[in-house]
Amino acid sequence: MIAKEAQMDALETALHRLERLETLEATRSCLYRYAEGVDGRDWGLLASAFAEDAVLVMPGSEVVGRDAIVEGLRGMLPPEFVTRHLVVNPRVDYVAEGRARAHSTIYYAHEGSGFEATGWGDYVDEVAVVDGVGLITRKEFVPAQHLPGSLARANTRLAELETAELAREASWRYATAIDTLDFILLESVFTEDAVLVTRKGPREGRDAIIEYYRTALTDPVTRRHFLVNQKVTTSGPGTALLESYFLYTFAGADTSILGWGSYIDRVRVIDGVGYIEEKRISVDVHSDVREGWAT
Fold first, then answer.
1. Which residue, 85, 241, 91, 259, is CA-closest to 170?
2. Cα–Cα distance between 209 and 197 in angstroms, integer?
3. Is 204 helix (H, G, I), strand (E, B) or coil?
4. Would you tell me which CATH number, out of the four given (3.10.450.50, 2.40.50.100, 1.10.3980.10, 3.30.565.10), belongs to the domain 2-149?
5. Are 120 and 108 in contact (CB under 8 A)?
6. CATH architecture of the domain covering 158-288
7. Least packed by Cβ within 10 Å: which of 129, 136, 213, 282?
8. Where are the domains of the chain?
């Protein structure tokens, strides 16, 4: 009976941790959906980032309601404008089940009809997760700097930030491919001359890496990998070092594994797509949750 109670406690703890991570991930996704909707003038996508009774607070104004927010932004961003809103360094704090608060830096660039400017500031977002989808219930923009002038001065910084985003996207593509056993997608993650280093040694070349995973992922279990604390260091436009912690679960008929470790990825951008050219995987803990992971 005691062992069964301990097993149930461990399962409850794991489920709570998973819910927390899913809430954090849905919150980040919501922030990016907002930026994509604004820059693409996709008003339906923009609306999908907000709760129906959301509040948008900007200097000198407060707009209440999703429809009013979308209409207000539509009026501020005419079609002839070219804009980019880059959500940088999002820090998401878990508040309660299905609720989070995000602090992030927003770096923006506007160009069009004689109006050119770059600037940055802070977003403070309160988010509720409904049916797995993050919805902004309150967004506050706190400006820090607004610089009228040519976008040419911002090109280098924009390229670095876009490289950082493409590096993260490559790592998410990797996790999705591993969890879904999509080896065609996995091929799109690595450069042709990529190197993979694990505790079992190095694998050189994309074909050797894919063959390694085909063998390593034969166990009939359901896998989930969760990427957290991703840190990107760009070494110039088109190249970056991405450091991540990861959590993973393996679940099967007689398998109940929880583990964590770290990834170090060197990413190269080719034709607007991020590819991993070197991946190092370090596993710190790999344990059956029915036994625990105390050392």
1. 241
2. 10
3. strand
4. 3.10.450.50
5. yes
6. Roll (3.10)
7. 282
8. 2-149, 158-288
- Residue that the structure tokens 């924009």 belong to: 158
| The model scores a pTM over 0.85 | no
Q: Which two tokens stand for residue 172?
A: 């998410």
Contact 209, 194 (CB under 8 A): yes
Instruction: State the residue for tokens 């042709």.
Output: 192
**CA gap 163, 176 in Å, rounded:** 20
Residue 285: phi, psi to the nearest 5? Answer: -140, 135
> Helix, strand or coil for residue 235?
coil
3-state secondary structure of 65: coil
CA 247 – CA 91 distance, rounded (Å): 18
Render each residue's pLDDT in the chain as its tens digit; 295 residues: 666 666 666 767 778 888 999 999 999 999 999 999 999 999 999 999 999 999 999 998 999 999 999 999 998 888 878 888 999 989 999 999 999 999 999 998 887 655 677 888 999 999 999 999 999 999 999 988 877 665 545 567 788 889 999 999 999 999 999 999 999 999 999 999 999 999 989 999 999 999 999 998 888 888 899 999 999 998 877 999 999 999 988 888 788 888 899 999 999 999 999 999 999 999 998 888 877 766 5
